[in-house]
Amino acid sequence: MKVCVFGANGYVGASVYKSLRKIPSINVSGTYLREPSLFDELYKLDINEPESFSSYYKQENPDVVIWSVMDGPNEHMLTDQGLMHLLTFLTPETKLIYISSDFVYSDGKGPYDEEDSLSTLPDDHLFSSYTNAKIKAEHLINNELSNYVILRAGPIYGENQIGKLDDRTDKLSYHLRSDKSIAFRDDLIRTFVHVEDLASVITELVQNDVTGVYNTGQSESKSYYQFMRLMAEQLGYNPNFVEKESEYEKVDQEIPKDTSLITKKITEITKQKFR
Ligand SMILES: NC(=O)c1ccc[n+]([C@@H]2O[C@H](COP(=O)([O-])OP(=O)(O)OC[C@H]3O[C@@H](n4cnc5c(N)ncnc54)[C@H](OP(=O)(O)O)[C@@H]3O)[C@@H](O)[C@H]2O)c1
User: Fold this and answer.
1) Could you tell me if 43 and 9 are in contact, meaning their C-beta atoms sit under 8 angstroms apart?
2) Relative to the CA of 103, which ligand 1 atom is closest?
3) For ligand 1, which residues put their CB under 6 angstroms from it?
4) Among the atoms of ligand 1, which is closest to the Cα of residue 67?
5) Which Gene3D superfamilies does UniProt cross-reference here (predicted)?
6) How far is 147 from 210, CA to CA, in rounded Å?
7) Where are the domains of the chain?
8) Which atom of ligand 1 is nearest to the CA of 37?
9) How confident is the model over 58-76, as pLDDT tens digits?
10) Which of 39, 154, 159, 248 is most deeply buried (CB count within 10 A of its CB)?
């Protein structure tokens, strides 16, 4: 079986790529964009560039494609160009596994299940490029394809297979190492997912016939403040150095408050237990 990981140089993609490489029956290739590449054999590719995308895709002709790319404020280009190219190449036999976000539920009144409607943000909103691009991508995939899995994830955390931590935990341990306090919001409720759990569920989905849309992550949601206190404990630091951040910041109105996810469906259809 041939599998392509778009974004194999990234936080999630690197773990997915490494997990798949351990499976003898899978022939995996992956892409990166910016130097340096984490793995020698990755293919340098701008997914938005039609010619290079086309030559890479025709050369690989995969059975499964994993979409693990992200580009913050330019996310709309990934959907309007990169994903559009990909859709023209996918055959009904090729399975697409697309990583989406809890921000598709951006009205922020969770917990949400997979059937809840998605809400776009106004163009001038801080998160509109990312959120609206993810929603558009989901609609495109849903309308054009049948052989696909969309995995919606909240904040992804933990050490990945190349020893990289997510930025928030990295910042947390940097502060606590030097006995400095650090503050996180207690009013923003999320469903956190460990990077290795996400990589492992993707590895399972590569090898089975499951399709559809699934929320991923822990069964219980937490605020950033609650979650980071737990992380501090797990990392062996004093959790009392984690404080509550002021809720009265300027950006306060901008951030969806509760994007927590009901994740029962994925645990019923896969073997994955989310830590
Ligand atoms: N991290 C989270 O908390 C979180 C939460 C919810 C959903 N997600 C989703 O999870 C997926 C993976 O995210 P991540 O955290 O692993 O992000 P990441 O570490 O930023 O990795 C994204 C990768 O995308 C690649 N990329 C960006 N623009 C590209 C382009 N034009 N052509 C080709 N490659 C391009 C980058 O390649 P280079 O490194 O080579 O530049 C990068 O490695 C994304 O779909 C994201 O939306 C992430």
Assistant:
1) no
2) 6
3) 7, 9-13, 31-34, 45-48, 68-71, 99, 101, 153, 155-156
4) 45
5) NAD(P)-binding Rossmann-like Domain
6) 9
7) 2-157+192-219+262-269, 167-187+221-254
8) 40
9) 999 999 999 999 998 899 9
10) 154
